Each structure stands twice: as C-alpha cells, then as structure tokens.
Amino acid sequence: MVLFAHDAWIFLISMAGVTVLPPYLASTLYLVIFSRDPNFKEHGSETRGFSLLTGILASIYSAWLLYAAGWQYLFMSTILFALGLPVYWYARRERMPNKPAFTTGEKVGACALVMAAVLAVVLFLNGTVSFG
C-alpha cells in the first residue's frame, strides 16, 4: 500500500508540474512577440531588449522542461485539458449567453487540443506510450 501511495504521489506531482508548462510556454512566446511590437512601451528597467531576451530564454527553458518531463505526462495533460473544455464552454455560456462560447481562434485551439487528446488516448491504449 505504501509503494502505491508513493507512486501515486509522484504521478500527481509530475502531472501538476506538466500541466503548468504549456501555458507558461505560451506566455513566454507571447512576451517575445509583444516585445517586438512597435507599440511596446518601456518602463524603467523593462526595456525592449531585456523583455525580448527574457522571453527567448524563458521560451527555450520551458520547451526544454516540456521535453524533459516526458511524452507520457504531456500526452496525459492534453487529455486533462480536453476534459476541461466542456467546463469552459458551460462557464462562458453562463456568463455571456448572447455571445458564442468560443471565438474562431479558440475553436481552432480547442479542435487541435481534442485531436491531440484523441491521439494520446490511442497511443496509451495501444501501448505505444505508457507510464512504466
């Protein structure tokens, strides 16, 4: 029982860490894009060059963390994110009933996420990817 509890604890810690990484990578990539925008306003020590360098380094680091985490955890996180789409849809419909639940960009992202989750389920079921 103790061995199972330890394995479950390690699995949950790994999943929690990996589910944070895709949004972190997206935000660091956005910093790279935003720092190159002509409307970027510098504030004190937050210069364009420093923001660009920070975004590039953080993007490389977060991409490496995703790679180092392992494909099995990344695939499992796509399944978990896809399972959260109905909750997102319900919350958006409840908050803004007269507007579409998803914008065009969000529809594209949601479709890509669902396709990745289906791929992950197939890879887990046929044994190509496993946690062992």
Structure in words:
The protein is mainly α and 132 residues long. The chain has two domains: 1-69; 70-132. Helices cover 77% and strands 0% of the residues. Helix 1 (2-35) runs antiparallel to helix 2. The model has no long low-confidence stretch (mean pLDDT 89).
Q: Report the β-strand fraction as a percent range.
A: under 5%
Cα-atom radius of gyration: 19 Å
- Whole-number count of domains: 2
Overall geometry: globular
Please mark out the parts with pLDDT under 50 across 5 or more consecutive residues, or reply none. none
Kindly name the structural category.
Answer: mainly alpha
Q: End-to-end span in angstroms?
A: 18 Å
Helix-strand topology string: HHHHH
Major sheet attributes: none
- Structure summary, number of beta strands: 0
Number of helical segments with 4 or more residues: 5
Which percent range fits the helix content?
Answer: over 70%
What is the average per-residue confidence, as pLDDT, rounded to a whole number?
A: 89
Please tag this protein with its features.
132 residues, mainly alpha, 5 helices, 77% helix
List the SSEs and their pairings.
Blueprint: H1 2-35, H2 48-69, H3 71-83, H4 85-95, H5 104-125
Helix pairs in contact: 1-2, 1-3, 3-5
What's a quick, concise take on this entry?
The chain has 132 residues and is mainly α. The protein has helices at residues 2-35, 48-69, 71-83, 85-95, 104-125.
